[in-house]
Amino acid sequence: MNNTPQSFAHKDKEKRTLINEQIVRFCDEVRCIGNGGEQLGVISSRQAAQRAAEQNLELVLISPEANPPVAKIMDFGKYKYEQEKRAKEAKKKQKLVEVKEIKLTAKIAQNDLNYKIKHAIEFLEDGKHVKFRVFLKGREMANPSVGFDVLKSVLQMVEDAATIEKEPFLDGRFVSMHAIPKKK
Predict the structure, then answer these.
(1) Domains in the chain, number
(2) Which of 110, 114, 174, 177 is least enclosed by beta carbons within 10 angstroms?
(3) Which DSSP letter does residue 72 get?
(4) Confidence (pTM)
């Protein structure tokens, strides 16, 4: 097994950050940065760990992919707290997209289609994505163009409220199409 800091970081990047003696075990020398951000240059990892211990701080490996790896003398508790805080902020800013699915058949009556399109437009106006699926039964599988024709008529009915993200495509026994709300 290759125990270089690069392979260790690649394998376990999200879960663990190397500190102090862990750095000494995995690499001989590091590019060291002081607590105030000053460059201490390329020094042995043991010497960098000793400098951190003299200041009652930890030596933290911040860029294991670099050559030589970059380590910084810092308060590890504070560093970890700030990382968690940044991760929470990023999670807050994420927008979760809800996808609604409208199931149709190849031989759907016009009034049924109008009813389903009315609901699809409501979903699109609420900012949700809509996936239209036409189920092909029995012999309809031999001629999937009937499913594509149904989706073409659906496309004409929702074109004012939606933009087609994915053109109609055959997906097993279904012909599917994805629609997203138009930008206002």
Answers:
(1) 2
(2) 110
(3) E
(4) 0.51
